[in-house]
């Protein structure tokens, strides 16, 4: 039996203080009490949590592989995310003499099923924690610039020339070696001759191009050791109004750091890209800012950031871009009377490398065709100019099917549910994944609530909807051998069709049945944990499989870009290490299991 002090304390902690007396007492008598010493590990990464921890005294730190991400003081709860996912993603360590109450996992899941208030609290908390983790990653990204060493940046090898070198010869060497500065040896002294020297000291002074550069060079070199920070180079350039810093190693010249490279390095950070998007006033400024996103993705991926967190950052940047385009083409007087939505992977917040457009408009009232096209056509055209090609399926605001009034969308939903043809099911899936970018988001929210209302009258619909989960075979053969897809010219397998899509659509089907309002696949899995075919353990396995397949797909796509090729969803098995092939087999086994569960759950064998 828990002490009266513990019961009194629990009455001050959300969501327990919002529960009815019966539920509260059920929790109070089930709590365990644990004391932890400073530095003691409470949960390890990948542990399966046996309880929800409620901090009563002290401080607990949550850390990922690269450092601290959160602190929990008295009145805080952890690790609800680990309970929902089935495994802890991070490590939890007591940083003080801490006292924690433990709510058993079985009771946590039972309350999540029986109490919508309890369930919603922790799913909202999960969303806040995910936002916080993304914010931490962005802060680290900014810090990584400040703390990166010069030897980690784009350092140019030193190019030495004699003081007798002429201006013309210096220009030729710079062009040939692709540098903007030369180092000039004169006895035991070393000077620097830059493009700016060539322009300001020779051309503007009218010196002939046969003039030797020795007397035009600067011998007061500004140097930093290669172990210094990039930030130090930026400060030195700013203070001295220079564009080059000479980098040394143990006192010897090791290279030259150029201002343009430093600014380029900085400009690929998400917080800088976001700032540039906010300030952009012209299509050219938007294009310049958005062009850095691919470099950002590559940088985050190579630092070991999970694709789902990269996708959150990229989603924020993309939506900021779409919002700026919307503002540039939509009269201010109309913005509150319509809703700009994105769909597909962009709507689910899973878009990484740029693909085609998936967007639509919802007008509050029926709008004249001229008014629609006045917004839709320039919006589509500007996105094409920014590098977003037209959607092959024409899911764009320029298509009247995806640019119409709220009433027209309601009518379309009624028709799709009443007559679930292949085209109707596809369109409904597209709209269910939609997210608001600009305008009145209530229009989209109300449409989805209307969809749930319609589904309450059509019991068989979700079964027909779920059938597409089984559309593609799982690429596993006898004895779980990986099967190559004949359509890939022997390169490997289409990991989207064989692994990722069945998870996305199977989860989408269950989410539709259980009226889940999240759009992101992992958020939907977490919301479904403990419902339908989702045991807590299988929730963790499915998230892990989805994460792994998204990771290897992104790596393959980035490698294709690095080689100057276009990217697709084909995974070359030859590029995988032995351990990765094993993990891929395990992931596809999870997919196969999930498809079987979907078939049983929706009784797909009984549907025509």
What would you say this structure looks like, in words?
With 608 residues, this protein is of the alpha+beta class. It has 4 domains: 4-146, Jelly Rolls; 151-265, CBS-domain; 270-458, Beta Polymerase, domain 2 (2-Layer Sandwich); 466-606. It is 49% helix and 15% strand. The protein has 23 helices and 20 strands. The strands form 6 sheets. The protein has a 4-stranded antiparallel sheet with strand order 1-8-3-6. The protein has a 4-stranded antiparallel sheet with strand order 2-7-4-5, with helices on one face. Strands 17-16-15-18 form a 4-stranded mixed sheet, with helices on both faces. The two termini are 56 Å apart. The mean pLDDT is 86.
Low-confidence stretches: none
**Helix and strand composition category:** alpha+beta
Sheet bearing the most strands, described? 4 strands, antiparallel
pLDDT averaged residue by residue: 86
Query: What is the CATH topology descriptor of the largest domain?
Result: Beta Polymerase, domain 2
* CATH homologous group name of the largest domain: Beta Polymerase, domain 2
CATH architecture of the largest domain: 2-Layer Sandwich
Query: How far do the termini sit from each other?
Result: 56 Å
The CATH class designation of the largest domain is: Alpha Beta
Radius of gyration: 29 Å
Coarse morphology = globular
Find the count of extended strands (DSSP E, 2+ residues): 20
Portion in beta strands: 15-25%
Number of domains: 4
Tell me the helix content: 40-55%
Which strand order do you get reading across the main beta sheet? Answer: 1-8-3-6
Total number of helices:
23
């Amino acid at each position: 039996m828990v002490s009266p002090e513990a019961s009194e304390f629990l009455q001050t902690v959300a969501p327990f203080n919002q529960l009815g007396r019966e539920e509260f007492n059920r929790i109070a008598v089930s709590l365990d009490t644990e004391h932890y010493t400073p530095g003691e590990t409470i949960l390890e990464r990948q542990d399966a949590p046996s309880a929800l921890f409620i901090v009563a005294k002290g401080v607990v730190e949550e850390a990922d592989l690269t450092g601290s991400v959160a602190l929990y003081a008295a009145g805080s709860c952890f690790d609800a995310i680990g309970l929902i996912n089935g495994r802890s993603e991070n490590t939890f360590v007591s940083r003080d003499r801490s006292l924690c109450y433990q709510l058993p996992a079985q009771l946590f899941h039972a309350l999540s099923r029986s109490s919508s208030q309890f369930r919603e609290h922790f799913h909202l908390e999960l969303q806040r924690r995910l936002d916080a983790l993304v914010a931490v990653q962005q802060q680290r990204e900014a810090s990584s610039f400040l703390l990166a060493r010069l030897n980690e940046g784009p350092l140019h090898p030193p190019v030495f020339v004699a003081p007798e070198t002429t201006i013309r010869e210096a220009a030729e060497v710079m062009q040939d070696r692709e540098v903007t500065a030369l180092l000039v040896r004169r006895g035991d002294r070393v000077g620097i001759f830059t493009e700016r020297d060539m322009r300001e000291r020779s051309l503007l002074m009218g010196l002939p191009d046969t003039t030797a550069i020795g007397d035009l060079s600067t011998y007061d070199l500004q140097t930093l050791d290669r172990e210094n920070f990039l930030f130090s180079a930026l400060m030195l350039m700013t203070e001295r109004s220079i564009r080059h810093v000479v980098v040394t190693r143990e006192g010897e010249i090791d290279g030259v750091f150029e201002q343009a490279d430093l600014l380029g390095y900085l400009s690929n950070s998400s917080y800088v890209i976001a700032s540039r998007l906010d300030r952009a006033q012209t299509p050219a400024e938007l294009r310049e800012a958005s062009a850095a996103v691919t470099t950002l993705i590559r940088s985050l991926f190579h630092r070991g950031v999970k694709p789902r967190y990269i996708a959150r950052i990229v989603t924020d940047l993309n939506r900021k871009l779409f919002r700026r385009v919307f503002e540039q083409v939509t009269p201010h007087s109309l913005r509150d009377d319509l809703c700009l939505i994105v769909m597909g992977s962009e709507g689910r917040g899973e878009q990484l490398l740029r693909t085609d457009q998936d967007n639509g408009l919802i007008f509050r009232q029926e709008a004249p065709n001229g008014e629609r096209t006045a917004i839709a056509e320039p919006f589509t055209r500007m996105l094409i100019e920014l590098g977003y090609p037209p959607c092959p399926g024409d899911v764009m605001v320029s298509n009247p099917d995806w640019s119409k009034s709220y009433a027209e969308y309601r009518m379309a939903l009624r028709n799709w549910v009443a007559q679930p043809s292949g085209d109707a099911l596809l369109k409904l899936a597209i709209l269910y994944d939609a997210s608001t970018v600009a305008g009145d988001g209530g229009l989209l929210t109300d449409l989805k609530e209307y969809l749930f209302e319609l589904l309450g009258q059509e019991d068989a619909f979700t079964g027909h909807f779920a059938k597409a989960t089984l559309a593609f075979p799982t690429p596993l053969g006898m004895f779980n051998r990986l099967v190559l897809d004949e359509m890939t010219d022997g390169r490997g397998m289409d990991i989207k069709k064989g692994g990722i899509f069945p998870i996305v659509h199977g989860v989408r089907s269950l989410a539709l049945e259980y009226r889940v309002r999240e759009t992101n696949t992992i958020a939907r899995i977490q919301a479904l944990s403990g419902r339908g075919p989702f045991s807590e353990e299988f929730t963790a396995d499915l998230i892990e499989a989805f994460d792994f397949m998204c990771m290897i797909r992104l790596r393959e796509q980035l490698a294709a870009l690095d080689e100057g090729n276009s990217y697709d969803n084909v995974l070359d098995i030859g590029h995988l290490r032995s351990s990765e092939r094993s993990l891929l087999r395990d992931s596809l086994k999870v997919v196969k299991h999930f498809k079987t569960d979907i078939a049983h759950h929706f009784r797909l064998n009984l549907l025509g």
